Amino acid sequence: MTNFLARLLLPFAIWFAHFSISYGATTLLCSTGQETGVHRTVMVLATVLAVILLIATLATSVRVLKSRPDRIAAAAATGLAVIAVIWTSLPAVLLDACS
Amino acid sequence: MKPPSSLPNTLPRPRSELAKLKAVWHLPSGWRTITAVNNTVVGYFYIATAFLFFLLAGILGLLIRTQLAVPENTFLSQDTYNQIFTMHGTVMMFLFAVPAVEAMGILLLPQMLGARDLPFPRLGAFAFWAYFVGGLVFFSTLFFGAAPSGGWFMYPPLTGMKFSPGIGADFWLLGIGFIEISAIAGAIEIIVGVLKTRAPGMTLTRMPVFAWTMLIFAGMIVFAFPAVILATILLELERAFGWPFFIPERGGDALLWQHLFWFFGHPEVYIIFLPAAGMVSMIVPTMAGVPLVGYRLIVVALIATGFFSFGLWVHHMFTTGIPARSLGFFSAASMAVAIPSGIQVFAWIATIASGRLKLTAASLFVLGFLFVFTLGGLTGVMVAMVPFDWQAHDTYFVVAHFHYVLFGGMVFPLFAAFYYWAPAFSRRQLSERLGKWAFWLIFIGFNTAFLPMHVTGLIGMPRRVYTYPAGLGWDTLNMVSTIGAFLVAAGVLVFLVDLVRNLRLTNTDSVGNVWNAGTLEWLPNHAFGTRSVPFVNSLYPIWSTRDLARDVERGGYFLPGTATGSRETIVTSAVNAEPQYVMRVSGPGWAHLSAAVFTAAFFLLLTAKLVIIAVACGILAIASIFIWMRQSDPAPAGKAAIGGGISLPTYMSGPMSHSWWAMVVLSLVAGALYLSYVFSYLYLWTVVPDVWPRPDSLPGLPVLAVSGLAASAVALWAADRCVRLGRRGAFIGLVAVGVVALIASLAADIWSQWHAGIRPDTSGYTAMVYANAVLQAQIVAAVFCMALFAAFRAATGRVDSLRRVAFDNLALFWLFALGQGALGLLLTHGFPRMAAAL
Fold first, then answer.
1. A48 assigned to some structural domain
2. Are A53 and A66 in contact (CB under 8 A)?
3. Which of A66, B100, B401, B812 is an S-S bond match for B379, by CB 3.0 to 4.6 Å?
4. What's the gap in Å between the CA of B454 and the closest CA on chain A?
5. B255: Cβ–Cβ under 8 A, 6 or more apart, which residues?
């Protein structure tokens, strides 16, 4: 049961961490006048890392959770978080920095 | 926990058992009713007050619409109009919407969870009375021309001293800041209540969706409200003492307010919407006669919405000139939140489709909600797109959008909830005929009022104008909107007539389960909740357990009487709902009431610059809280048998205790407040790095302050040892030394900054340095009061190795003060040095 709650919360916590780090890093890099390439590299790395973490979370959820409805719920949470991570990263990767 | 094979308690129960239970939970009558703390009584007060503010703010809305009905109208003056639209928004958001859903939680949760009451009844009552007094005084400023007029979001520089020199803005800042504190008190009550007082067997996956939404609602309050509290503190410091946080020419930034306000303001929309969605998730299955489709997916969607809502705040700032990357970032996040919202809408539609919906008044309001809220959601996706937002921003399109979201997403479900749950609390059911009249008038009126506003906005009418010239194409649309607003008012009037004619609140003989609902709040209820606490084996226990209502009422389930002779409820584990201990809850009293009144008076008198009387009220408030606390934390009373062979302790300290959880949540609130400060500090640095000092103009390394913190930490550790060993005298001495060291650390830091020539009113940077001290001083003051209380308890023999809640609570907050102190020193002394090295 404790796992169930954790498995629901974890994907969104990863999304929030990715969001905060990406936004914070972007702001800091802009304010210190870094190149656009640096921004993109940071964003891509953060996004890839977040997606890997989410997939790993899902893999362990499937292994740990006993009931099928719980697994589906955990998969749905992970799926939503993956979509949100990628979706919010896209403009940051595609647009010019600090413009 | 395994379901009991037979009823946990033998039947029939002794007659004296019920009589004793009734006597212990007896409600004060007459004028003493105001001292009552039962969740039902406080819930009624809360809902009535919130509804009163809805009516008052609605009347203000009608005044606005009357003024705008025709061009060049002189019904209201410009300044009065500004005050009225500011108060309309402020009252609706802060005094109606959040308190109304909090009230529904306080009223419904204990019954729904199978608890006798929430864990801190006096805290709930305190939150209500603080809100009641503060809200009424705040509203009455309108009658004295002293109401704020800077819009409900109070953007500086308009609300700075230069452009708003009166006390209206101060009333907003201190009044709303105070009411937010009351909301946080309610949120702590709800979080601990939902996690720790569920009936045995009610695991998280058997918890009603409404309880989930209230848990998420309260969690969001914990993290969102501190941002606006910090914003109000900073702006009030700027207005009162000239600390320039938001004045660009002195190294501040006006956009900092918008960041802080919307970091609260956007989650606020979901804080209001999620509990309303929870109510819908309770009503739809009952009215359709089938379990909710996709329960787990709805829970996932609720959690997702709660998280995502914290990543959207900048979408209120698309026209402020922020970088394109931020625009894209937050635009995408704004669209992403549509997915979990969509999951919920489709789950409700699927539930309706899989059953046979009874077309009651409650169902009509739910259907109205689905229609109106979905339209609001669609226009939400439109304004999430930056190019469209640039066109529609600050026009009536946005006014239409957020009324569709908020009225559709919260007011319609609330009316549905009134019609749905009234039979559980009233001797008479509300009239279905009047309810349907009310629905159609409100539904037609709402769409007549707000649908044309989309067009009014798209053809260019800006918000917040008190009149407009004829011939711009806005005349007819505005008149139609005004007619619609009065239709809504007529619908609300019909609802009021229904309430007066039919609502007869009761704690003993309500109409009961007229809808054949499946959740626990529909069991026969009394002032103490259900006669015995049921075992929960499914999401809809009344549907799944035969004769549950009868057996519960006869006392066959857990705790059918009072085990210790006082008010009690069963505390269970947070996830699996395993019984842990029997908690004694507080009864009626005056202390929490006077604490609320004096706290409200402190804030309001401070606004009116009556400092000496305000300080006196502050002292009286603290004294009242001491009296209130003195009556809490009763001594252990052995074990209590609750039935089924289960014997539980009657006292608990440490991580299993409800008060420990409350202190953890309070520390999270304080942590969120401080993180908002850290964000503000770093934000200002990114915007105006020039005002950050060079290392040579900084004070020396804070050796004294760090030593103070270290000494305080050692004293805390040693005090803990003394509690374990029962050394009362040494304990009191160590607490005193520790707190003095904490105060000395803060004083040393302030002195070092002052000594280095840093003054708070010089620049945004210096203001931030002293704001850190203000925040730390608040925490230290709280630790000081708690230490005084713990020392008093120890001196009177009420703190020992077993009965140690007073010290545990102090220790948790003390640790927080140490952590915040250390982080503050790192930020104000370390960061400028690091930034200079970059």
1. yes
2. no
3. B401
4. 28
5. B317, B320, B322, B687
Give the count of domains, chain A: 1
**Nearest-angstrom CA–CA distance, A69 and B455:** 45
Give residue B288's pLDDT. Answer: 97
Q: Which of A88, A94, A73, A98 is nearest to A18 (CA)?
A: A88
Instruction: Look at residues A92, A21, A27 and name the one whose alpha carbon lies nearest to residue B327.
Output: A92
Residue A51 falls inside a structural domain: yes
Q: Which residues of B touch A14 (CB under 8 A)?
A: none
Assess contact for B237 and B774: CB atoms under 8 A. Answer: yes
Taking an 8 Å cut-off on Cβ atoms, the answer to whether A15 and B203 are in contact is: no
Dihedral angle sign, alpha carbons of residues B506, B510, B516, B518: positive
3-state helix, strand, coil in chain B (%, to 5): 70, 5, 25
pTM comes to 0.95
The verdict on B340 touching A (C-beta cutoff 8 Å) is yes
* CA-atom Rg of chain B in angstroms: 27
Radius of gyration of chain A (CA): 16
Identify whether the C-beta of residue B119 lies closer than 8 Å to the C-beta of residue B180: no
Does A99 map to a domain?
Answer: no
The helix/strand/coil state of A98 is coil
The reply to whether A85 falls in a domain is: yes
Answer whether B308 sits within 8 Å of A92, measured CB to CB: no
pLDDT at res. A2: 55
- CB atoms closer than 10 angstroms to residue A93: 17
Q: Which of residues 301-330 of B touch A (CB under 8 A)?
A: 301, 303-304, 306-308, 310-311, 323-329
Express each pLDDT in B90-149 by its tens digit. Answer: 999 999 999 999 999 999 999 999 999 999 999 999 999 999 999 999 999 999 888 999
Q: Is B580 helix (H, G, I), strand (E, B) or coil?
A: strand
Q: For residue B828, what are its two tokens? A: 């104000």
* B718, two tokens: 């040693």
* Residues in chain A within 8 Å Cβ distance of B335: 87
Cα(B305)–Cα(B580) distance, integer angstroms: 32
Q: Write out the residue range of the structural domain in which residue A14 sits.
A: 2-94
Burial category of B282 from C-beta neighbours within 10 Å (exposed 0-12, middle 13-18, buried 19 and up): buried
Q: Output the pLDDT for position A29.
A: 78
Would you say the C-alpha torsion B28, B32, B33, B35 has a positive or negative sign? negative
Calpha distance A2→A74 (Å, rounded): 13
- Please list the residues that pair with B647 across neighbouring strands: B641
